[in-house]
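Dear support,

Our group has been running a series of protein-ligand predictions, and this particular one with zinc ion is the one our PI (initials K.S.) wants archived with full inputs and outputs. We had some confusion internally about which version of the output was final, so please treat the block below as the authoritative record. The input we submitted was:
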Amino acid sequence: MIYASYEDLLNRVLQETGLQREDVEKRVQEKLDELSGLVSREGALLIVANDLGVKVLQDDYRLVPLDQLKPGMRDVTIQGKVLAVYEPRSFTRNEQEGRVQSLLLGEGSHRVRVSAWHTATDKLASIKPGDIIRIKNAYTRQGLNGSVEVHLNERSSIDVNPEGVEITIEGGVQREAPRKRLADVTKDDGLIDVFGTIVQVFDPYLFPACPECNKKLRETPEGLACDVHGVQEPQQRGILTVYVDDNSAALRAVFFHEQFKRLVPDEQLWQDSGKLKEDLLGSFIRLTARVRYNEAYDRIELIVQDATRDVNVDEELRKLEALEREAKGEQREGSPAGEA
Ligand SMILES: [Zn+2]
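Confirmed final output from the archive:
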């Protein structure tokens, strides 16, 4: 049933209109007669409520399972388990500054990308992988490769770990990003999954940032200041660049602050590039990254969205070997090298 019981609905109508019970019931009966039994009593009451301008479904929601989402839906409610939270990113369009952040939501064997735009990105701030979330008032769009994406705007809301909701994930924590050999990465790739060894670590770029908007603070006579938020107590932020090598090629991988912090949580190390290199060089790493083409240097770079050094090396090497055989045009043996 998509709405509450007849009694609950009726009470709501009485409350909101101040009408007498008999008046409303009389209207319901008239509607039933008019529609000659084509609707239920609840259905007739819904119509009457609508005629009276009472939004009885206001607090109820239209929960759509992830596998039933279609492009062009509005005001949908979805729920699922957060499998990944990607790095927020800023962009400029028509001289307006914009912001977008995405996460990957799963339910059963289905995966859906959820993107929040502009101020709605604030709603993702406290969400971590593993959380169960329910998103209300979202809308859907056609995504890449025929997928459906869910978008959030200012009206959308998120309940984190709502009571009584359990979500099971089938097929492991799959990523939507295909596994690639570094040699096969092209500038047309979107999100990819790679595995390799950190072979070079550059000194991190550290800067004082505005605690409100994370932008770099400027020196002013009054102290460090943000163009938008004025003088602020600076917060240290860092950007790390490394080279990752998988024996087919080596690519630059950039860790913006949140990812840098996840890779190297001890910020003391950020200041000491000797120790930082000691910690990172030679580490195996698995990355989910967005591919960016750097025009100035004519090179492909990986913008890290998710990274872990906790990897099953044998398994990753098997996947790499399978991709290598595939690249050489050989038939893959046994089961395909799917995600763990
Ligand atoms: Zn600011």
